[in-house]
Design goal:
single chain; alpha+beta; Rossmann fold; D-amino Acid Aminotransferase, Chain A, domain 1; 3 domains; six-stranded antiparallel sheet; 13 strands
Length: 311
């Protein structure tokens, strides 16, 4: 892939989602790495005239490091497909499926991948009635989650019925599409997947021990609020099982080039898949680069490996 240095590359970052700041941090690291390695690279924020700007700059490859809506959900991928501009990572359908946690869970159910049980909240109905319906069929503690957000934005752990309706109303008002998931207490782990076609590998498992009640947005991006254990404290057999399930989840959604699979290992020793992130963070605190480093893959090598997924 040495001829990639002859092509003009755009690192697409920022965007409009709640993860904008994380994307800007990820994008700067990727840009700096490519520049240092001698690639012909510029950076660009997501704007309405994106294709016109890419064409004007004669961009030949887009390195997509957008997180969240309008960047990780298949919309930008579709735009780039129509413009015939190669881009890194998963394509349209896989991006849309991975971003929509309910759609992902339905795929996981269909192919036998363990995932915490869940129930969709019907935003067209009265929220008080939906809260009452859920309480009749779903035990506490439970977790309220937006359907299509990343970085644990809008995720709330509810331990008892008191206050459940109020939090549900607030979450529906802010995010509209919401679901409720069973709270599985256990070890939180994450597994990076890199490579294309037959050259796909699961990276070493990272165990996350948050000082908050769960691995929320604050715990993810605040230094000192989470202990990172790499490799995870798992038996050899369980390590193999977790990596196999991570690869299954990646492939079941059709992800390509890179992803990060977030799981929790319950007291029953079953790894339950929470979600698949099709564009993992690349900041100085992100999980994927740490896992790659433990596998002997430098940040610069990781950046180039993801770049190669554009073809």
């Amino acid at each position: 892939m040495a001829d990639l240095k002859d092509k003009k590359i755009c690192v697409l970052m920022g965007g409009r989602s709640g993860e904008r700041e994380v994307s800007l941090r990820s994008g700067k690291r990727v840009f700096d790495s490519l520049k240092k390695q001698g690639y012909n690279v510029i950076s660009m924020d997501l704007e309405d005239d994106l294709v016109a700007r890419l064409k004007a700059e004669k961009i030949e490859i887009v390195y997509n490091i957008l997180h969240g809506r309008f960047g990780e959900d298949g919309t930008v991928q579709g735009l780039l497909e129509m413009a015939n501009i190669p881009y890194t990572g998963s394509k349209v359908l896989a991006s849309a499926l991975a971003m929509n946690k309910l759609a992902s869970k339905r795929v996981f159910d269909a192919v036998g991948i363990p995932t915490p049980r869940y129930v969709e909240v019907d935003a067209t109905q009265n929220v008080a009635k939906e809260a009452a319906r859920i309480q009749r069929v779903f035990p506490f503690p439970l977790v309220i989650k937006p359907t299509s957000e990343g970085s644990s934005l809008g995720v709330t752990l509810i331990k008892k019925p008191d206050g459940f309706q109020e939090v549900l109303e607030k979450t529906v008002a802010e995010f509209k599409d919401v679901f409720v998931e069973a709270y599985v207490k256990g070890r939180e782990v994450t597994v990076g997947i890199i490579g294309t076609n037959s050259d796909v590998q699961a990276l070493p498992i990272l165990e996350l021990v948050p000082k908050n009640e769960f691995y929320d947005y604050e715990a993810k991006y605040t230094a000192g609020l989470t202990d990172f254990i790499l490799p995870a404290r798992l038996s050899q057999a369980l390590t193999k099982k977790v990596q196999e399930i991570a690869l299954m989840a990646h492939k079941s959604l059709g992800c390509y080039g890179v992803s990060r699979v977030d799981m929790i290992i319950g007291s029953d020793h079953i790894p339950y898949v929470h979600e698949v992130n099709s564009i993992p963070g690349m900041t100085e605190r992100s999980d994927l680069p740490a896992e790659a480093a433990h596998a002997g893959i430098s940040f610069d090598q990781l950046v180039v490996k993801i770049l190669e997924s554009a073809f």
